[in-house]
Amino acid sequence: MQTQQPLVDEEALHSFVMKLVGDMSAAVSVATVVLGEKLGLYRAMVGEGPMTASSLARKAGANERMVQEWLNAQAAAGYVSCDAAAGTYELSAEAAMALANEDSPVFLAGGMDVLAAMWRADEQLVEGIRSGNGMGWHEHHPRLFVGTERFFRPGYRSYLTSSWIPALEGVEAKLQSGASVADVGCGLGASTIIMAQAYPNSSFHGYDYHDGSIALARERAREAGISSNVRFERAHAKDYPGGNYDLICYFDCLHDMGDPIGAARHARQALKDDGSVLLVEPMAQDNLADNLNPLGAMFYGASTFLCTPNAMSQGGGPALGAQAGEARLREVFREAGFNRFRRATETPFNLVLEAKP
User: Fold this and answer.
1) Nearest-angstrom CA–CA distance, 151 and 187
2) Which of 16, 178, 222, 278 to pair with 166, CA 20 to 30 A apart?
3) What DSSP character marks residue 202?
């Protein structure tokens, strides 16, 4: 018996196809951002006003014909403005903040390497999804690690010591006088180094299970000229040493862990009785329907490629994913033995949570 095919609404079909075309355009535009960032084209345009392809190519040391095509792509995507009659292109001050200024809180160009790394992982991830074994963070291309650092570091620079830590109960005073801090899942150490620079009287210990990240974190600390109050060691979230920390931090990483409850339970044991946990997670609502928006699409997509596969590869607990939400995270810490849990502050992209014994 032949299955009857559903009737197709031609207008709805056209609308859906055009949405896919728009998404394909966005994906291609991301790839052109990677090129522009690596070639220094955005930086070469900052403050220059209208430029021709020839003048930009000359300043950036690139081929004029190739730069012309790149500029046309940027103009079509709306990343630069274009005076077609004059043959000039201009990068606005606002676009420069997102594409050229690494000190800007909204700098996004560096994080495009994360998306490039996701594409590289597709074949291996297919098998990981079929088997349920996932794919470990360490199995990804190295550009993922650098891209992740460059994606998160602007936010840490802008908010960590100016907003997030001051929002915690009594923590900033401890750090100013001298406290012991563990940064669990520290990656390349951006958050650890920022705190160590801001609070020189305190000691900071960055822990990550990935050898390559720890090696780069140590290099970053040397480049920053700090060594007396920061150190980086390879350790898992359930076996790092110590039992006397004033503050334990998880920056955008607890949801990646195979056993987040076990990690929180270990933090409870490693924390002083009057200590605090700083938990920074992607912004998410507790209900799925409230996350069905562009921000949720970005986080769910990244979680499909990175966060959930890593958690599945480690096993031992719930794979939270990048859109766990405050209520589920509160339950994790309640199960781990914490009695107090609250939202300390937030940004459009972050939940900033505090847990205490």
Assistant:
1) 12
2) 222
3) S
Report the candidate in 182, 354, 337 with the shortest Cα–Cα distance to residue 269. 337
How many CA atoms lie within 13 Å of 340's alpha carbon, on the beta-carbon side? 13
The answer on pLDDT for 316 being more than 90 is no
Q: What pLDDT was estimated at residue 2?
A: 64
Residues 3-60 pLDDT 10s: 677 788 999 999 999 999 999 999 999 999 999 999 999 999 999 999 999 999 999 9
The whole-angstrom separation of Cα 23 and Cα 72 is 18
Tell me the DSSP string of 85-123.
TTTEEE--HHHHHHHT-TTSTT--GGGHHHHHHHHHTHH
Q: In whole angstroms, what is the distance from residue 324 CA to residue 287 CA?
A: 9
Backbone angles phi, psi at 316, to 5 degrees: 95, -5
Cβ neighbours of residue 138 under 8 Å, at least 6 residues apart? 209, 210, 211, 212
Structure tokens of 266?
């270990």
CA pair distance 273, 279, nearest whole angstrom? 18
- Mean pLDDT estimate for the chain: 95
Beta strand 340-346 with 245-251: parallel, antiparallel or unpaired?
unpaired
From residue 55, alpha-carbon distances to 58, 69, 75, 301, 316 in Å are 5, 14, 17, 39, 57
pTM (2 d.p.): 0.92
